Amino acid sequence: MAVTMAEVAARAGVSVMTVSYAFSRPERVSATTRDLVHRTAQEMGYTGPDPGARALRTRRAGAIGVVLGEHLTYAFEDPQATRFLAGVAAVCVEAGLGLTLIPVTGGPGDADRVREAAVDGYVVWTTADDDPVLEVIGRRPAVVAGGPAVPGAGLVTIDDRAAARAVGLAVFRGARSPAVLSFPMGRDRIPRLVSGPDPESALFPVTRLRLAGYRDAITELGGDWATVRVLVLARNDAAEARAAASAIEDADAVAAMSDQIALALPDWQDGRAAGRRATDAGNTSEPTGASHAVSRRISGWDDTAAAAVAGLTTVSQSLRDQGKACARQVVSGVVGVEQARWRLVERASTAGPADEVSADG
């Protein structure tokens, strides 16, 4: 039979509340009494209050749940997700909370898995408008990163449409055969090649807004969005992008929705080699356009370290800071809409000047 808190209290000659405080709030018990309780508990084989019972009593689980719209390994494989989770984890450390990853797979049990998670609130990694888990997160403090907006929940995002327009103007200027390397359109994650899709047909807000911004840029430059090929990927995956790239190999300008998939294009083989040579030579400065010229204009998104080495034009945003912002809202219990900062960084891949255009969200 497991030793109970009451039995420890009786043996030590103190109250049950004193035993509880000795383990959970030791500052409220004198050092002498605390040592007596711990010594008695050790002799009796008592390891402390049951965490499940404490959670029921306090109605606090002591953890933030991060809802991933992907398989669990995605959290460790995707550089965007890794940086975002690092931000959430930093706030958890500050607040003395745990972090629980809640993967969803698109199956019928997703909503129940999220609802039943032993967490005090949710941070939801960007998902689709029709994701059923959005209907259950409102029971606790919740914040969605990147969208969609959910009544009663917070939202932390950048102005994806404005950022896509800015990078689109850089990559598409002068292009005769532009193309887009896109994130998935919906939770079905069907990869496909389409021409000039209606951005509103995308159920992922990030995909929808970036497509709208690219369309804005094409229109502003005098082009016809209906002729722009959009290669839709199932995931933000370099191997998938590399395998599918032949479908847009004749495009003279490609806007990719992440640095990872932009740098997976065949154009960057020489760029990566040049970057390695520069690193081996001890040159850690940002490369010049001459050593990283590509046969067509290409842009990415996220401003990773690899993008700087390759000379890739990109949209810079801090996913770590966005993760922190989401977690802080959940911890405080006060949720709302928060616009994060972004900036366009033009480099050699768009043959543009080495300056930056900034925008505060």
What is the CATH-assigned architecture of the largest domain?
A: 3-Layer(aba) Sandwich
Give the DSSP E fraction (strand runs of 2 or more residues). Answer: 15-25%
Q: CATH fold name of the largest domain, please?
A: Rossmann fold
Tally of helical runs = 14
What is the general shape?
Answer: elongated
> How many domains comprise the coordinates?
3
CATH level 1 class label of the largest domain: Alpha Beta
* Largest sheet composition: 6 strands, parallel
**Helical percent range?**
25-40%
**From the helix content, strand content and strand pairing, which structural class follows?**
alpha/beta
- For the termini, the CA-CA separation is 59 Å
* Annotation, overall tally of beta strands: 14
- Radius of gyration from the alpha-carbon trace, in angstroms: 26 Å
Helix-strand pattern: HHHHEHHEHEEEHEEHEHEHHEHEHEEE
Let me know the CATH homologous superfamily of the largest domain: Response regulator
pLDDT < 50 stretches: 270-292, 352-361
**What value does the average pLDDT take?**
87
Strand order of the largest sheet: 2-1-3-4-5-12
